[in-house]
Design goal:
487 residues, alpha+beta, Beta-Lactamase, Helix Hairpins, Heat Shock Protein 90, 3 domains, 5-stranded mixed beta sheet
């Protein structure tokens, strides 16, 4: 069953059950109220009759009005109200209306209760073996004893036809039924509107979900934050935004992976082609004897290049999966930077760059010596690669409970967009240099970032396009590092 019909059926059942309970209660109340009104009216008549009938003659001391003439007059008045009267004397003999037959008397059990001062209310004297006021049709009646002090003087029995009361009840019931039917109709119309409104919002969610399933992450659902469906719409929008970012990231990673594979293929093809060509030449003695040593050196250089490409990938995977162990010690960081400057000076000269270390005094640092060297080497080599006819400067100095290293260049720099991704795997800030045969895989800065994080250090990048880049690395002291880990 569709949700629409389920909701409508639910609303319909709730409305019908609720209104049925209300209607049943109203019917009972109307019936009870109608009979209560009848009894109250009859009891009012009985009290009025009693006050008049029990007046004594001041001379004789007899009751003047308990006699047929008075009761006839009262009966004529009561006929207008469709009320019938019977009166019994203190001996349980019917004295009104008079009959030529044997006088009617009340049952003994009823009479005893009347003598004790109890009044009777009979809703329908044709039910439950009640005393009958008439043998022709049912009456709603009361029996009230009249006392003079503690002495019973008479009992009056007043009755109104049940049909009169039931007519009033039926009219009230008909009005109630009409009101209930109108309420059911109005409730169903309102329910249909509510169900349609809510289902239309759910359908929007359903359509939007299908679009997302088809790969459209631009879909959004308008909402007003009024209820749970609006909360669901808000969560849906957040989910789609997250999926969009994830999809974009997957596409970026896939693009970079494809580019990386193309770069690796290119980087490996060149040395492999060179090595294969030299081996062919050596095999067929096509290389002069005086050139063999140079050819072997070239093969060794190209082999080392291939090994570096493979090692960079293996190294990154180990670092990323926390499969390396750091052996931290305290050592002279200035000396490490001096060695790196010496190693890369040749590369800097090839690009007409000036590579220099601005620090001369020993500055001690707490880190893994080999990995620290790898970090500074990768960043410095990257700075040289993207700088021409410029400067690359290294600085190391102490700050509060830490050692800081800055590597500044005057190269091509980066935009804010490029800065967001430079530490991601396979990313290259300058794609135009992908195929220049440098052997760069796009893993250098990703390795740097992972190693700095494993040192619990910090790395910051400040760069502007065409103005250069500055990397700032902070390595905390042993005591400070423990404090950071405990926080």
């Amino acid at each position: 069953m569709k949700l629409f019909y389920q909701q409508v059926l639910s609303f319909f059942l709730v409305i019908v059950i609720t209104l049925s309970i209300i209607g049943f209660s109203m019917m009972n109340f109307i019936t009870r109220q109608a009979y209560d009104n009848t009894f109250s009216q009859l009891e009012g008549y009985a009290d009025s009759m009693g006050h008049i009938a029990l007046k004594k003659d001041p001379l004789t001391g007899r009751y003047q009005q308990i006699k047929p003439s008075f009761l006839d007059e009262f009966q004529q008045v009561m006929q207008v109200q469709n009320v019938t009267i019977r009166v019994f004397n203190e001996d349980n003999e019917q004295i009104y209306p008079e009959s030529s037959l044997t006088p009617y008397s009340l049952r003994e059990d009823v009479w005893q209760e009347l003598k004790s001062g109890k009044s009777f209310r009979i809703q329908n004297d044709y039910l439950n073996n009640q005393p009958k006021l008439s043998t022709k049709e049912p009456y709603s009646s009361i029996m009230v004893p009249w006392f003079d002090g503690s002495q019973l003087k008479a009992v009056v029995w007043l009755g109104a036809k049940v049909s009169s009361t039931e007519t009033t009840i039926k009219q009230a019931q008909q009005n109630s039924i009409v009101a209930l039917l109108a309420s059911v109709s109005a409730g169903m119309i309102i329910s249909l509107v509510i169900v349609w409104f809510n289902l239309s919002r759910i359908k929007k969610l359903s359509k939007a979900t299908k679009k997302v399933g088809e790969g459209d992450f631009s879909v959004r659902i308008d909402h007003k934050d009024n209820d749970e469906i609006d909360d669901l719409a808000s969560d849906f929008n957040k989910m789609v935004e997250s999926l969009k970012l994830s999809d974009e990231e997957i596409k970026r990673q896939e693009t970079r992976r494809n580019q990386f594979m193309a770069d690796v293929a290119h980087e490996m093809r060149t040395p492999l082609t060179t090595i294969n060509g030299i081996l062919e030449g050596l095999r067929y003695d096509a290389i002069p004897v005086d050139s063999k040593d140079k050819s072997i050196q070239l093969m060794q250089s190209e082999t080392n290049r291939l090994i570096r490409l493979v090692n960079e990938n293996l190294d990154y995977e180990k670092i990323r999966n926390n499969q390396i162990k750091l052996f931290k010690t305290k050592f002279d960081g200035t000396l490490v930077l001096e060695n790196i400057v010496e190693q890369l000076s040749g590369n800097a000269k090839k690009k007409n760059n000036t590579l220099k270390l601005l620090s001369t005094e020993p500055v001690f640092i707490y880190a893994d010596h080999d990995r620290f060297t790898q970090i500074i080497f990768n960043i410095t080599q990257n700075a040289i690669q993207f700088t021409e006819n410029g400067n690359v400067e290294l600085t190391i100095y102490r700050v509060d409970k830490a050692t800081r290293v800055k590597i500044k260049d005057t190269g091509i720099g980066m935009s804010n967009e490029q800065k967001r991704f430079i530490f991601e795997r396979f990313y290259k800030a300058d794609p135009s240099r992908n195929n220049v045969g440098t052997g760069e895989s796009g893993l250098g800065l990703a390795i740097v970032y992972s190693l700095v994080n494993q040192h619990h250090g910090q790395i910051e990048v400040d760069s502007q396009a065409n103005k250069g880049t500055t990397f700032t690395l902070t390595f905390f002291d042993l005591k400070s590092k423990k404090e950071v880990d405990s926080e």
